[in-house]
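Deviations from the work plan: none for this task. Representative record:
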Amino acid sequence: MIQRVPWALLVFVAAFFVPAASLRYYTFLANDVVIWALFATSLNLLVGYTGLVSFGHAAYFGIGAYTTGILMKKLGVSFLLAFPAAGVSGALFALVFGFFCVRLTRIYFAMLTLAFAQIVWAICFKWNEVTGGEQGMPEIPYPDFGWLERVAAWLPFVGGYRTSDYFYFLTLVLVAACLWLLRRVVGSPFGRMLTTIRENPERAEFIGVNVRRYELAAFVVAGAFAGLAGGLFGIFNRGVFPDFAYWTKSSEVLIMTLLGGMGTFIGPALGALVLIWLNQQIVSYTQYWPLVLGTILIVLLFVFPGGIAGAMESAARRLRRGRQVA
Amino acid sequence: MPDLSFVFAQALSGLTAAMFLFLIASGLSLIFGVLRVLNFAHGSFYMLGAYGAYQFVHWLGTGPGRFWWAVLLSALCVAVLGGLVERFLFQRLYGKEELYQLLFTYALVLILSDAAKILWGTQQKSVSRPPGLTGALSLFGATIPYYNLFIILLGPAIALGFWFALQRTRAGRFIRAAALDRETLGALGVNVNALYTGVFVLASFLGGLGGALITPMRSVVPGMDTEVIVEAFVVVVIGGLGSFWGTFLGALIYGQVLSFGILFFPRFSIFSMFALMAAVLIIRPWGLLGKPLK
Amino acid sequence: MLDVRDLRKSFDGFQALSGVSFTVPRGSISAIIGPNGAGKTTLFNLITGHLRPDAGSVSFKGREITGIAPHDLCRLGMGRSFQRTNIFPRLSVFQNIQAAFLCHRGRGWNLLASVDRLYRDETEALLVSVGLLDKAGEVAGFLSHGNQKQLELGITLALEPEILLLDEPTAGMSAQETRESIRLIERIARERGLTLLFTEHDMEVVFAIAHHITVLHQGEVIADGAPEEVRRHPEVRRVYLGERQ
């Protein structure tokens, strides 16, 4: 019964009411969560579904952010082009970097992803002319919402929103579309091939899976969606900065993925929600958020390696078994 | 053409940096070679060694040799901390996925970095050079602080001492065996868990020592942990994960490239370090002196 | 059908195989036997592309296949099972076999279709044929050893091979399990007209079903022929039974 309810649709629709129902700050948080949910889900394609642990996924996030930022701020390109461009550039860089990374295994793979991410960071940090260097690129313009405001003038309910609210709606729609796409990919034959690689690469080779090629493909898809997330984040954050690509950003998103649960599709998004909400709560009490995060991480690793979604799943299973016996 | 004394000074500065990195990276390499784990928290041990040295210098007041005592005590404390962490926490993760072990070390980074902030605040701390090593030497027209010279000589001394210990002592042989084949070693009756703890303690000691010794040269600040760990990664990759002399070589190379790189290509120096790391991983993943992982 | 010529392979100075040659006729059941360390698994790895030989060649159906990557090889009609059971542990039994169909029938690069119903009939038919239909929904990693071996066989069969290379198919099985397993394999080979090449330790099994036996010792072929010949071969007797010349 609980499966039949279209949870995803409900959450999606409910999300639209956040600006009307609450403070500006909550819209801000929700927007943050939605973008990071996409970022984390893209990483999970690599970590959870293919078994590739990347420590440099923030590289594509940063690349996407800078692409959109440069296009919109410096070249005046419209969002309609700048947004997909973020995905394309993320995919391109993932193709180049990934080509070298998938030839390595495990720890070497992780280190090379880290090295590439640091290279991206270093370039963004120093290339003052193009990326603004250490200062980054503040004041990325919002997309033009004139058309939306004109539509709003006609409809009675849709109106009186701020630009940031419009951007939130836009983010919701775009991220929902991306997540829908990713869900399709994960549930497709391609996605199943990825899980065979995760489970047993040797066996996968011997059912005809060209492991390296599939891993590269997964890398590119993940990079594309991370780029899209980055493109959105640059605008949301009102500025693009080099630390978007720094390795600590990569570990943040990795922790989110672990927290929510790498074994499920919705896990990372859940992790994004919980982590951002928790961060917001803790930061109002104390400045020692890293300490709290580190402790949570340790508890996760030792007690709940399946993350929140994993814990929920096993609880549900136990409940079902209990009901059957009774 | 830059003049010789200048080149000489730069080279020595590179050497000094290299020796510190060697101290830290050797611990990282050791942990990787035996435990097959990349310990992100190693930079944190370095940082704690530095803070510890500051604290002990403070507590020991004035007295002969207080700097050296402080360094030693600090490194020992860090070593004990490392041992406790390994024995009571890290050991539980053996056999689990590598990702968990990596993330555990990262969790340590988070916790320890805030712990340092809680204990010592965010202001820079500094430690003065030990009496006897203040002042500088003039060599080939360049001014070399005695302390730097000391470090430059200490590095190889420790390297040789370690190498000797690894080659000649029983414990050293066990360590090398564990790096090659831990299962067989366990089957032979060696207490592999105790060995792992020992390795971790040793590595933490080295990291803490590096941190403690650098205090007269650099101020102790939060953030020194994440800064140094990435440098240590580069060194270890270049030299070869798990290779002792590889780490030494990697540190030397890194030190010189950084030193001259900043000079000639200031904008590219950071980039070039990571590009070098990537290049090594692409062309020869096991580094200059490492062996291919089986 | 399978032609191995003068294969050589050494690892770090240790000569694992020094000039191994033999032929596997189409439709036959052939076995490779030899004491531990004789090089049987290395030989298999060379044939199936997991390792590259230092010298020598392998041809399959008249076509040179030396050093072709495993993922290309299984499209040519070669199926292989591994010594240590090689399945996809966290997927269900059904999904294990379905995955093989998906890849083999060329759907692997489809990024948008839903995978649930694809090749359902074929997968179920195969499950029936290896006797695992009742366990279709179970997680593969939790199956018994014998069932896992059956599953592995199923995965290999989904690739519609013409030749089956089985590396120690009855390793770790009880006498009963061994008998059942061999009966299953033989039946399947007969039904589908497969050529079979396997390595084994269990002499009973080998002499019961093999048409052709190749004996390997320390990386060299010391005997090659029908079971009766091999049984009487003096070198073989020496190696296995320690008999003097």
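Chain B touches chain A through 41 residues (CB under 8 Å).
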